């Protein structure tokens, strides 16, 4: 190439020099060397601005650099009609010279600028001559015009350079496209980075970025150019080639039309931002959030998140289902909004403290369930922070610890009881009263009392029978009779004490009847007045239209008498006693504070005195057994606890209103009965009588059996004796004459007393049965009430009570447990989420002959019912996907007459809406209670096989 230049320009009188892209001079002709006064080796191989330096940022420096840059960037010749530029003269001094120059780009085969051929002419003499001439000629004017244009070009070039620099430094990508073909004229660095550092200038968009074909961008540019309307798009996906690969990016951009002086669109300005990282980050955030939510939805715990200010912004489905609320109900509320109202102030204070300090939150609290039950949970929350330590969000969980809390309370109670037993007995009983405020501890003491009463009553029965037999053998004036009479009265006091033990433990066998309390009070009025004495004025008030109630009349009379005597003592034998009976309604607001009380209609019995009143401390303990404010020897402290136990066992409620110095009012609420009042049977009168019938006596206690046999034989009866049910059944099977089966309820052996009665009735249809016991458990007593048709003589009994009861049973004919039909082929659907409990239920029902379907969730149970009916639905209240009550409603919608048996540890079951074919089976329960509950609902009689002793 240089040889060719030598041939072409060697002898050319006009100076030429060849520069590469780095502005290194690689060739110069002779005219150029003469014009500059330099030798070839002083020029070739050196950078132009090193050989011809000019003051940095001076006008000559700016003009020459700008012209060279334009030639390279635009790929076409650039002219400098006049440029002042100093060069060094022969004596070494810098001399300002004036030049006219043309910079012509030389391109390679691919069209890229490879060299610049500069033609420069020294016009210093001409310029100075024209400047000093008084009459410039055309040539002078041309030079002046060239000078002006040169300076304007320099200013314009500076502006363009500033504009280019500003565009290049802009954070957003920019490009100026010229003409209908959209030729790149200006492209900044950000745009180059976006498209992958390729040559764009002076190329059309379709040529420079062919991969955009089919993505709609070419069409958008055409539309903006033709319509003159700007177009904006956010997060637009675009496929761009970067190296060998096509990569996906996201951009926000705007395309604006560029107009010329005539208002016509000349090009398009493109500006925007690469938001790929932002979109990827957003996608990662969304993915992370969805991963968290998926994990949170599958967790067995409640999961929630809150804003930095402590407001809920998300909850998992398990928490929403538990609360029975929707997201719309809870979003924006503090997390403590679902806590039990009584616990909420302390929980909110702890939460506010965690928010203020930015520390983890951890607290045990009770959370209200959709059925208004409260369960203990361990609530934890941790703050999530950004790189600067600012809290972005709170993530919290609620873990159900109800079972642990119950176990801890039970263990604590057991430890306390064991420790008290090591100490003295009196202190044990006093400290045990503290635990009686909780219903489960009352249950434990009731079981203990029942066991004591059983053994105690057997002892008393032996003593009673022996004394009475001894008295019958003595003359009326025998010296030992007063002592035996005194011993008999002591036995009666012991029997009363045992009865009171059973009463406060809610284990006494009640014989409720539908009665009118007004008539009962009228009949007992003389007893009350006699008990309180003449110094107490007694007033009775009975409301009109009084409702009936179903209770044990004897226990009601005892309760009234106990309350009246307590009132007499509080008034020290003088004052006013008011007994009032009326109708009452206990609403949801009142019963909400008493978990074991259902809202509804009640008959209210109020006993009010004008005595000394009670302090709050006394009121708090008044129902505790053995607690009394009376002097030693004046009371056992069991009267009020017996009243409390009887009322609670009857499904009622007791409330005390009292102030020191202003008297006391005790109100008893007994559930209303819609049935008609039972006719009162007259009490047996006249002398006791015996008979000549044969009685099969079954009693495991040898002394009690011997004494009972003596009493019966003294009455004239023939007695066959057996110490357990197995031996008694052998006697029955022998064919011996038997007119009545008289059996203890609780006995050892393979057969229970109830099973003995069933088998005996099978062998001797119509045979009368009389049960006796000091503690009946659940064999012939369910829900604290004697089974229908069952005769019971409670221990200890006198010979007169024994004589009258036996004649009553013999006269009334066959009695005892109704004949059993069995549960064979009864289809029971068991819905219980606990696998072990469900297996036990299924096993017990299957052994009884039932056909059993089982389900672990409400949805699975409904699927069974949709494909066919069942004879009974046995359902737990707490299911994983819905409550047992909701399942019962859905089941009744499918099968309106379906009997429903709720098996639950929750005492509050809204069973009213499902009546009459509904029952509640309180956990824990045995097979006998289970089968009995099923039988009652389906109208069958179960063949019970479980030992009820």
From TrEMBL:
A GO MF term: phosphorelay sensor kinase activity
UniProt entry tagged with the keyword Transferase: yes
Pfam family, one: Response_reg
Residues modified to 4-aspartylphosphate: 744, 876
Domain PAS: 13-75, 288-359
EC number annotated for this UniProt entry: 2.7.13.3
Parts forming coiled coils: 415-442
PAC domain ranges (all copies): 361-413
Tagged with keyword Nucleotide-binding: no
Residue span, Histidine kinase domain: 451-674
Protein name: histidine kinase
Record's keyword terms, sorted: Coiled coil, Kinase, Phosphoprotein, Transferase
NCBIfam families, alphabetized: sensory_box (TIGR00229)
SUPFAM superfamilies assigned to the protein according to its UniProt record, in alphabetical order: ATPase domain of HSP90 chaperone/DNA topoisomerase II/histidine kinase, CheY-like, Homodimeric domain of signal transducing histidine kinase, PYP-like sensor domain (PAS domain)
Reaction catalysis annotation: ATP + protein L-histidine = ADP + protein N-phospho-L-histidine
Gene3D superfamilies (alphabetical): 1.10.287.130, 3.40.50.2300, Histidine kinase-like ATPase, C-terminal domain (3.30.565.10), PAS domain (3.30.450.20)
Residue stretches making up the Response regulatory domain: 694-810, 827-938
């Amino acid at each position: 190439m240089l040889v060719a230049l030598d041939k072409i320009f060697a002898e050319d009188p006009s100076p030429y020099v060849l520069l590469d892209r780095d502005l290194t001079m690689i060739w110069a002709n002779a005219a150029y060397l003469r014009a500059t006064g330099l030798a070839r080796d002083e020029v070739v191989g050196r950078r132009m601005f090193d050989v011809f330096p000019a003051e940095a940022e001076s006008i000559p420096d700016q003009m020459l650099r700008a012209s060279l840059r334009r030639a390279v960037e635009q790929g076409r010749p650039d002219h400098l009609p006049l440029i002042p530029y100093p060069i060094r003269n022969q004596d070494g001094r810098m001399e300002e010279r004036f030049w006219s120059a043309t910079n012509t780009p030389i391109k390679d085969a691919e069209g890229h600028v490879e060299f610049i051929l500069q033609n420069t002419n020294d016009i210093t003499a001409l310029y100075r001559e024209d400047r000093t001439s008084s009459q410039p000629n055309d040539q002078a004017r041309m030079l002046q015009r060239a000078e002006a244009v040169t300076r304007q070009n320099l200013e314009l070039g500076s502006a363009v350079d500033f504009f280019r620099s500003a565009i290049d430094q802009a954070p957003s990508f920019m490009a100026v496209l010229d003409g209908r073909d959209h030729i790149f004229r200006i492209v900044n660095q950000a745009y180059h980075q976006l498209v992958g550092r390729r040559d764009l200038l002076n190329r059309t968009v379709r040529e420079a970025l062919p991969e955009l074909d089919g993505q709609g961008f070419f069409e958008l540019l055409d539309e903006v150019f033709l319509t003159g309307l700007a177009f904006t798009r956010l997060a637009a996906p675009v496929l761009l080639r970067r190296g060998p690969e096509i990569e996906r990016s996201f951009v926000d951009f705007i395309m604006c039309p560029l107009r010329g002086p005539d208002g016509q669109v000349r090009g398009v300005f493109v500006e925007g931002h690469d938001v790929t990282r932002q979109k990827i980050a957003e996608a990662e955030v969304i993915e992370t959030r969805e991963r968290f939510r998926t994990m949170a939805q599958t967790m067995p715990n409640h999961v929630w998140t809150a804003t930095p200010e402590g407001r809920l912004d998300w909850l998992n489905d398990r928490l929403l289902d538990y609360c029975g609320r929707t997201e719309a109900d809870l979003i924006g509320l503090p997390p403590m909004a679902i806590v039990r109202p009584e616990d909420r102030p302390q929980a909110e204070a702890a939460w506010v403290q965690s928010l203020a300090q930015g520390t983890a939150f951890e607290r045990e609290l009770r959370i209200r369930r959709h059925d208004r039950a409260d369960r203990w949970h361990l609530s934890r929350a941790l703050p999530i922070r950004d790189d600067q330590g600012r809290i972005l969000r709170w993530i919290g969980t609620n873990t159900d610890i109800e079972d642990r809390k119950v176990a801890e309370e039970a263990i604590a109670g057991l430890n306390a009881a064991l420790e008290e037993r090591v100490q003295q007995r009196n202190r044990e009983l006093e400290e045990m009263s503290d635990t009686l405020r909780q219903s489960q501890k009352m249950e434990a003491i009731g079981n203990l009392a029942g066991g004591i009463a059983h053994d105690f009553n057997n002892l008393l029965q032996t003593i009673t029978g022996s004394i009475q037999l001894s008295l019958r053998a003595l003359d009326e004036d025998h010296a030992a009779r007063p002592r035996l009479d005194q011993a008999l009265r002591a036995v009666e006091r012991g029997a009363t004490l045992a009865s009171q033990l059973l009463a406060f433990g809610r284990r006494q066998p009640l014989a409720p009847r539908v009665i009118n309390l007004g008539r009962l009070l009228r009949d007992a009025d003389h007893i009350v007045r006699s008990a309180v004495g003449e110094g107490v004025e007694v007033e009775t008030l009975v409301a009109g239209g009084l409702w009936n109630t179903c209770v044990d009349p004897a226990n009601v009379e005892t309760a009234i008498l106990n309350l009246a005597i307590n009132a007499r003592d509080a008034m020290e034998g003088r004052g006013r006693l008011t007994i009032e009976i009326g109708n009452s309604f206990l609403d949801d607001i009142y019963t909400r504070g008493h978990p074991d009380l259902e809202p509804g209609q009640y008959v209210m019995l109020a006993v009010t005195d004008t005595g000394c009143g009670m302090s709050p401390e006394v009121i708090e303990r008044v129902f505790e057994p053995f607690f009394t404010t009376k002097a030693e020897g004046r009371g056992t402290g069991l009267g009020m606890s017996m009243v409390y136990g009887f009322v609670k066992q009857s499904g009622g409620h007791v409330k005390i209103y009292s102030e020191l110095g202003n008297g006391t009012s005790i109100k008893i609420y007994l559930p209303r009965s819609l049935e008609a009042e039972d006719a009162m049977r007259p009490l047996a009168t006249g002398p006791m009588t015996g008979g000549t019938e044969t009685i099969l006596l079954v009693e495991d206690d040898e002394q009690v059996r011997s004494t009972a046999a003596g009493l019966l034989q003294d009455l004239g009866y023939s007695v066959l004796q057996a110490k357990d049910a197995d031996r008694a059944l052998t006697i029955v099977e022998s064919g011996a004459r038997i007119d009545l089966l008289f059996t203890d309820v609780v006995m050892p052996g393979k057969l229970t007393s109830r099973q003995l009665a069933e088998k005996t009735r099978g062998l001797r249809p119509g045979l009368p049965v009389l049960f006796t016991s000091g503690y009946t458990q659940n064999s012939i007593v369910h829900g604290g009430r004697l089974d229908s048709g069952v005769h019971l003589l409670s221990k200890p009994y006198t010979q007169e009570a024994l004589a009258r009861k036996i004649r009553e049973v013999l006269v009334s004919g066959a009695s005892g447990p109704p004949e059993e039909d069995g549960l064979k082929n009864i289809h029971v659907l068991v819905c219980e989420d606990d696998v072990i409990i469900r297996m036990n239920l299924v096993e017990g029902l299957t052994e009884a002959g039932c056909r059993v379907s089982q389900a672990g969730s409400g949805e699975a149970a409904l699927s069974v019912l949709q494909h066919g009916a069942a004879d009974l639905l046995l359902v737990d209240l707490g299911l994983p996907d819905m409550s047992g009550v909701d399942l019962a409603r859905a089941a009744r919608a499918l099968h309106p007459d379906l009997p429903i048996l709720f098996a639950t540890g929750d005492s509050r079951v809204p069973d009213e809406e499902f009546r009459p074919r509904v029952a509640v089976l309180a956990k824990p329960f045995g097979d006998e209670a289970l089968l009995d509950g099923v039988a009652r609902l389906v109208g069958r009689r179960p063949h019970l096989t479980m030992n009820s002793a």
